[in-house]
Amino acid sequence: MKANYLVLSVLAASLFVNACKKDEENATPAPTPGTPAAINPIRSYLAANLNAARQSFTVNATTGGGITGNKGSHVDFMPGAFLTASGSPVSGMVQVKLIEVLDIADMILLNKQTVGIYGGQLRLLRSGGEVKIEATQGGNEVFIIPNGAVVSIPGGGSIDPEMDVFYGTEDSDGDVVWNLSTDTIAIQDSVAWDTTGTSTSWFYYALYPNSLNWINCDYFPSGSLATVLADAPDGFDGTNTMVWLALPSMNGLGGAWYNGSLLFETYASPIGYQGVIVGLHVDADGNYFSSFTNVTVAPGLTVPITFTPTTLPEFVSAVDAL
Fold this sequence. Notes:
By secondary structure, the chain is mainly beta. It contains 3 helices and 28 strands.
């Protein structure tokens, strides 16, 4: 049997110094993977999940107001925060939509990876949580003034002070690549937003963005990177299979693409982290198969992965348990 390889990270070993926070480091997107010859039905499933995760609110543009998502993300809009495309102030009610992508399960089921550009290369990020914020009035997109909103993403009972603000660029397949911003981030401790039901403090990453859409708090972990290969069965390609490398301890996810020559390729991963190679396949009859393989990222690693029959609810349960 001819082997197909899922390349789960492709960059040579390197070291990242987190102190550098220049937008220009991330200004140029990396090359876009080739589009498969046929549409992958799994992408349609993930897109439907994303649409179902979209929450709707209304905010008074003149007085401002706050919204809170089902998973605890909070957005406060300042009075007079909204602008039209021409730069005119917006008055009246604004429709706001929010998507929260806070953990590994969200990232897989909504296909929102934590992959950023550094020095023109793509590599995994440690994430504190991703959100998408859309604002419209009468069906027309509206925008915000600089620092017109405060986006607070729950960090739970602990916080990571290395987090930075990243903005995401989403392609037509729904894949997101994150770009480092110089926008401000702070740490908040708000008992008023405490979702634990106890006296334990609940920390938030408070982001002060200058624009909306995809926003993430994360950073590039320091250390060396390695290439990981996953050996998949024949016939598992970009038209019927999707593969991710999940690193739960860093709340990071790297997706994969089919390059047309028996390879799924994804992004640089930090050596020494324990993770899971997750795969989902659908055959011509609409039957689903999943794969979950534990790995520790190391140089020169090739991992055979096998797929077993599943249903989409069973796959969701398995992903929730990661």
